[in-house]
Amino acid sequence: MFGGGGMGGPGGFIRAPMPGGGPGGPGGGLTRAADLTDEAVFGKVYDHKVVTRMARYLKNYKAGVAIAFVSMVIATLTLLFMPLLFADGINIIETNDPTKLDIIVRYFVNAFHVQGSSNILTTVFIIFVINGLIALGSQYLQQYAMSNVGRGLLLTLRMQMFEHLEQLSLSFYDRNEVGRIMSRLQNDVGSLQEILSNGVLLVFASLISLIGIIIIIMYMNARLALLTMTVIPVLAVVMMVWQTYLKKAFIRVRQAISVVNADLQENISGAKVIQSLSREKINYQRFDNLNWENLDANISATRRATGLQPVVELLLGAAIALVIIYGGSQAIAGNLLLGSLVAFVLYVQNFFNPIRDLSMQYVELQRAMASCQRIFEVLDTKIEMVDAPDAIELPRIQGKIDYNHISFQYLKDREVLHDVDLHIQPGETIAFVGSTGAGKSTMVALVDRFYEVSQGSLTIDGYDVRKVTQESLRKQIGVVLQDPFLFSGTIKENIAYARADYTQDKLIEAAKAVGAHDFIMRLDKGYDTMLQERGSNLSQGQRQLISFARAVLSDPRILILDEATASIDTQTEVIIQQALKQLLKGRTSLVIAHRLSTIHDANRVVVMENGRIVEIGNHKELIEKKGVYYHLYTMSYAYNDENGPPQEKHGTT
Amino acid sequence: MRIVSRLIGLTRKYWKWLIVAFTCLILATAASLIVPILIGDAVNNALHTDATTLKVTGNMHLLVMYGIGILVLSLLRGLFTFGQNYYSEFIGQNVAYDLRNSLYDRIQHLSFSFHDTAQTGQLMSRATQDVEGVRFSLSGGMVRMIYIVTLFTSISIIMFTINWRLTLVSFACLPFIGYVAIVLVTKLRPLWTRIQQQMASMGTVLQENLSGIRVVKAFSRQQYERQKFEKEAHILYDDQIRVARIQAFGGPFMTFLTTIASSLVLWYGGMQVIQGHLTAGQLTTFYIYLGLLIPPIRMLGPIVDLTSRGIASGQRIFEILDTQSAVQEKPNAQVLANINGDVKFTGVNFKYQRIGSRETPGNILEDINLETKSGEMVALLGATGSGKTTLVNLIPRFYDVTAGSITIDGIDIRDVTLDSLRKNVGIVQQDVFLFTGTIRDNIAYGAVNATEEDIINATKSAQLHDYIKSLPNGYDTWVGERGVTLSGGQKQRLSIARTLLINPRILILDDSTSSVDTETEYLIQQALRELMKGRTTFVIAQRLQTVKDAEQIFVLDKGKIVERGTHLQLLKEGKIYGQIYELQLRAQEEALGSEVKR
Q: Shortest CB distance from B384 goes to which of A321, A471, A569?
């Protein structure tokens, strides 16, 4: 009986729900805390759809689930058996009457013809030990099988979510913050872990032992059993009411801590700004308020969570007192043996454990349901961009791009591109110019088929991008983003990102072509230098060069370049200019241009305004036209020249 | 041990509650211990089995008394347990609150040299997970440890008084249990650490994939990334299974050992009863005590774990709390007010003092001497890493000079309060940080008492008013996380408005209008002009116009001022400035000169 939580008593206090540490957890750690405010923390305790769907996952683990379940039943039964064994021991000492033993022990005693109280006591002892061994084995099997199932299932879920996320189109990522998606893959899967490895079985185990105890005490003395059981409905009602009361407190705790963490995060990231604006005092006051609210929420939750204790203890005391008084009178009346009376007390104490467990699992189950729902929500997000069933591999292309009267909208009724018609010849360099929101980025994203056009079509070498596989399409298109995204890993891995089949020579050649080789060789470990997250141990210019090298190595037919404008020192700037020339050579290039030199060198400049192409031509033509381009151009550079014609200044050198 | 005593010291403020908690603890323990005695006594005294007739006789009155006694004691036990749990949690929560506040305060006051190297994620994990770790170890670990020790000692004493032989028999399993607990802890701890690390590296892969999804897709590397993720997820899975296997054996095995103890007590005790050395009631009481003892013994492992985690967390927290800000305010610092804005650098040297770094860094700035008059504009030029940004960061004392001095109107900046100094020095930073809140809040961030009129004027000067007005909620538009996203140019203008509102005498500009389109750039330039009017201005210059307008130009190279003068003077000299001009600035001019006819 000492297994599985012992005999009630103070052992129970250890299992009392820990406020904050329970559903609140450590505030979700580093995840975007604010997520939780508009997402339900608790779901229904039983959501049929969710459960059946989870059950489908379990199908792959039939054997594991069966083993876990059977061994759980056995383990529960062995635990239930222990007080009975104790009663046997006491009864045999008191009465020396083998008929007072329970069925199982009596069976063994008869089978082996054991006689005499001390011999029977020894038999009880042996059965006790064997029972313990069975408990050991079955508990081990149960836990091991269940965690195998649980972890395996989580692994499957993680992989499924990851794969799914990788297939979702960019518009999904435009709509959803990374932090939120992260939280689903980490926190929600994590919170399932608990319930899967312990919770579900614990619910069944609690139910079985509750029923088992009722059967046993009914069998021992029906009247006494019924009498003691009168406390159960009272307890159940109290716990139910308490639980909803607690839930509110926990939700408040959770919200309070996420607000604290969000503020903390913001103030740490913005510490420098705060110091330069001397806001420390005000911000401290604000943080203190939030922190205080969190403390208050936690303390009131604690009060609620621990407040149940006296009620439960009182009911437990009442049940035991009933057993002693009424059971004692029954014993005097000759209807109950002393040993059985003691066993009765032990059972009644054990009675409360499953009820307590169930009420705790109730909260856990609700949380798990909510997590499941959020996970399935991700898995159910429709993949907008799938290869057509008859999609072909795009053969090696020349690089002719045709925008055929394309319209595009990210959201319904918010058209971003209107009837754009543009035809680009292989090897051409096209510079896109226009103010923010004019549609430049959308234009180039369509070539990669990151988004689906709503009208018209985009063809490459005459192939509609929707009719070729995404992989074969993108393999021939290189992209260099304004903020070069590097992965943690070595420099080599980052340059070779697009090509797993690179050779060392080719790699170095690519790095040399863009002028990255020199600085890489100056690093401690050269090409094997580890980059920190996002390459933060390199300067902006260096990161840019590595992303150039990456593009050169992948040797695409079409190159898309979102030109970086962040400040780079002069020397790097010169290197980058040269690298750019190298990069654009012999490819069809679409450049979202910021640098004057790039615009100059482009074959054609496409000027965009509000989702339309308003002017096309080379720099010179457009300047002469004195239209939109001329206006943009003069506005940005003309004022540079108020103090006199630069030619004159130039002449002074 | 030093950390343990320091952790305990955190509770000193709450000593009254601590006393309450411990009193409750002792009383709850006492109540728990008396209940089994009552049950045993009820069986012993109120009931009696006649050995020959097997008939049970008894005293009903006594039985009822025992029943009531049990009821009352149970209630008392419940109340005291409540008190103990509530007050220990109360203390824990309060300590967590204190720690969060002091961490926050400390982090806010640590100078830039700390923030340069510290990672937000790292600091966050200390302020969240480690604070929780300490809280758990205080309210859970410490109090429970005392509870267990109290309980264990008192139960052992009672058991010994009942029957010492039986006590020894039942304690025979204790060393084994202790051994198993230690083995479990030592085996599990490294695994847990590994799992934590693995979670982190899996998280990194995930984070990178989600933020870099464009790159992944553009290079068609989904397959590769999936394998990468699968590998990480599998390593995690394997470690978790390893833990599960150990736990699946450890827990049940400990239970088994306690079962052995119980069965031994029943067997040996039963024999003693048969031999008349012990009564059945005593055996029952004994048995119940043993039952009381076992759960706490099994809790020892987790408690040790909790405590060691608390110590580790405490160490990480104290590390931050003990970090002294490199920039300290003098106790008798005066308030800097009504200044003209004459700034003077005299023989300034600066080197970063990196904590924990073995290499002794060289000087970032060396022998800087410069002087500006009120209202002058100073342009700083030089390659990345030449020390421009460091130089301007010394003026508001984000860092302290290593040697030499900086004065404003002749007053050493180390002699004035940080607050008053920084109110007089405004910075428009390259990287604009927006706080969650409305646009108005963000503009008035440094000037809380600004009137609506002030704010609108500042925003107008910063060329941002029209845009804000065009938003549905105008100045009440929410920005930052979950708010509208402002473009780079808009952010920069907001930052300019923010600085205008503080109305500093000295202005520092990191003039790189990054990632903005031409029209926006024009607006920013306009806003900047407005901002610089009549202020002493230091500009880290990228634009030709700014450089030309400057009264003084300083060219920095490897931390030294290598050239100084006006645009024309320096062009004539034709050294470094000449080169920069050739490389970068002239391209801007040529483009204009050749094609734009004014």
A: A569
